[in-house]
From TrEMBL:
Pfam families from the UniProt entry: BPD_transp_1, MalF_N_TM, MalF_P2
An example Gene Ontology biological process: maltodextrin transmembrane transport
Alphabetical list of PANTHER family matching this protein: MALTOSE/MALTODEXTRIN TRANSPORT SYSTEM PERMEASE PROTEIN MALF, MALTOSE_MALTODEXTRIN TRANSPORT SYSTEM PERMEASE PROTEIN MALF
Keyword Membrane appears in the UniProt entry: yes
Major location (coarse): membrane
Protein name: Maltose/maltodextrin transport system permease protein
Keyword line: Cell inner membrane, Cell membrane, Membrane, Sugar transport, Transmembrane, Transmembrane helix, Transport
GO cellular component: maltose transport complex
UniProt organism field: Halomonas campaniensis
TM segment ranges: 25-45, 51-68, 80-102, 291-314, 326-347, 382-403, 437-458, 494-516
Family recorded in the similarity comment: Belongs to the binding-protein-dependent transport system permease family. MalFG subfamily.
Record has Cell inner membrane as a keyword: yes
Sequence ranges assigned to domain ABC transmembrane type-1 in this UniProt record: 292-515
Amino acid sequence: MFTTNASRGLPRHRSRHVAERYSRWAMRSVIGLMVLALLWLVMAFYLHGQWVFALLFLVLGTSLGVVFSRRSLMSHRYIFPAVAGLGVFVMFPLVYTVGISFSNYSSDNLLSQERVRAQLTAQSYQAEGAAFSYSLYQQDELVRLYLESDAPAGDNDRLLSAAINLTNSEVRRAPTQAVDGPPEGEPLPMRAAIQARDALQALRLQTPGGTELRMAGLRQFAPMIDRYEIRDNGSLYDQQEGQVLTPDNDIGFFVTENGERITPGWPVNVGFTNYSKIFTDPDIRGPFMQIFVWTFVFAGLTVLFTLAVGFVLASLLQWDQLKGKAVYRTLLILPYAVPAFISILIFKGMFNQHFGEVNMILEALFGISPEWFTDPWLARTMLLIVNTWLGYPYMLLLCMGLIQSIPGDLYEASAVDGGGPITNLMKITLPLIIKPLTPLLIAAFAFNFNNFVLIALLTGGSPDILGASTPAGTTDLLVSYTYRIAFQDAGQNFGLAAAIATLIFLLVVGMSVVNLRLSKVKV
């Protein structure tokens, strides 16, 4: 006899079967909606000319549909979100950055060629002829423009347009007629013209003589002519300068007959130009190599200083005769608990050349006031001091754990043989902790190699390197140098920044491989 469900009177196995069926249909509906949403994104990106992102979401939507629709791939459903996240947030940005490094992508070469052409052909200039001041007059629900020449010289100095609707900002044409004076009534206030500015800019007024008037200012209409005219061969004719602009797909610009580039341009493939520029252009190679060397020195000295301070403090905290170890341990780890950006900003104030506590103490004791932010060597010294303060608690924790794992019998045997603290340090402690500590030191080196937050908040890369064609500072690391090229340079050279970022990635990959080798992990 079946046990029935109290609410529906159905056998329990049938109730469970119905619930599972509804669950499957609900899951399929959710997957279907997600696939449709991804397809919508594909179409949206494709229609806006972003075919790379369209391809990304197409692959993502296709893989989502395949994995969740086939029973043979059921085991992959659990790992699919992680793999998709890895692809979208790690692999795609990496591949996209490498792709940009082979282009001239920058603030001057940002749009597609079609959008550049459209932007140029939308430009106009004021032709010879008098400008007209205008006023708006209400006529029922429509508006008429009364225009009066700024330099009266004929019969058509006062014009009145046909009634128009200013709620529509599409391009439209309206005829005008010569009049003796303004129409009856009071003109609309200035704010009405401001509110209808988009519609007025799209308005084309035809004078009785056939001249076209366009909005040339907030209170003026004037004879305006399209500056560029499209030719059948794809070139543009500049009607103002009387010259032909030819599209050059090697550099991504329209160029004049004299070779002058007309901005904006469009991205094109430049091969290894950005990479060769790093090592062949003297104005870039010099600052790059200086920053490259400083990056390695900064990361290496930071690891050395933090390890030395952390190891010494960890050894002292293991001293049996030291009282209050818990208090000292808590105080020494406090810098690790405070967010780094807060500590950096506090140190920035303390090292202020005029009002900082550091210079006040040095001036009171020794009569000196170092220029921490303007002298390159002092700025680098300040960075190392601050970074050592921020990083030593991490090394302290590592060394404490490793020292505590050393058997006490070894130190007792050393004492029997007459070994002292130096012997214990050199023969027992360091040899036993250096091997497990090496992969962690390499990881710390890689972290400080890309320590962008410290540079950005403390010095901003300053003081600058004189003679550099790119924004480069003596305290810049490669990562902050890349950021400044991409977002602070006047030209925002994303292609060059991507090339440097690719080199940084290769260096970090190399350090990671070394780290894995030292950790005895198969690569």
